[in-house]
Amino acid sequence: FPVTIFNLGRAIMARNPLMYSPDSPWLGFTGYHTQSWIINPAMEIKVISATGGAAAQINYFKGDSIFGLQFGGMQEANGFLGNNGSGGLSLGTGNTTWTQLQFDHAVTDQIGAIAAFGIGTTHVQNNPLSLIEVLTPIQSQSWRLGVYRTNNFLPKDRLSLSIATLPVLKKGLARVSGVTGYDYKDDEMGNTNLVPIVSSEVVNLAHSSKEFNLALNYQHRLTNNGNINYNWILRNNAGGQPGLKDSFFGVNFTWLQ
Prior knowledge:
By secondary structure, the chain is mainly beta. It is elongated, with a radius of gyration of 23 Å. The strands form 3 sheets. An 11-stranded mixed beta barrel has the order 2-3-4-5-8-9-11-12-16-17-18. A 3-stranded antiparallel β-sheet has the order 1-7-6, with no helix packed on it. It has one helix at 5-10; strands spanning 13-14, 32-40, 43-50, 53-62, 65-76, 79-80, 83-84, 93-106, 111-125, 132-134, 138-150, 158-164, 168-171, 173-186, 192-204, 212-223, 226-236, 245-256. A hairpin with a 4-residue loop joins β8 and β9 (111-125). Residues 1-15 have low confidence and may be disordered.
């Protein structure tokens, strides 16, 4: 009863992020909240925290532009970068770090442009009982280009529309093993035993198709100390799977200190 390596590989399924995170796409896999501190008129520090992960970002204000630099890390107990498995297809524990650059420029008093680009590296601690063994560090990438408009429905609110990607797997190798057949062998007592034939194959973890997403974000002041963010995203080639489309919606809060 053969089991093919190809089908084993397809059993690794990508899950939707709990919420889309314009500020930190990697933390969107786990859900997050944000705290912000204004250090002086030219500098802001953000701390974005989530279950199993966190990121710190420094924003520098210069004229009509904002320059941001972010460093972050997270741990996923049953997979990596939103991919998960269990039992014989367990993906182990993933530890990811990333760096992201962000740019925000106000073209007019209400309209502006936004851009972001980040790269991440994931190291996987393999489950010794799994048929899947990650062989190399996994490299991922995320980017965002969009426009925004302020003071739409409420004072100081912000509505943005972007083309974006969730973290896309760009490079990484894994070995997938499985029983592909059986052989019959006689032991010293003349008994015939069924011996499984185990085969393995090294597979490329990079997404075969580029994922392009349309992201809509609306933010407004909830209290004097915080903003509420509504995020909706329409995914095309979701999880790097050609032709797969889906969408999801999430809400998160930014606390201002």
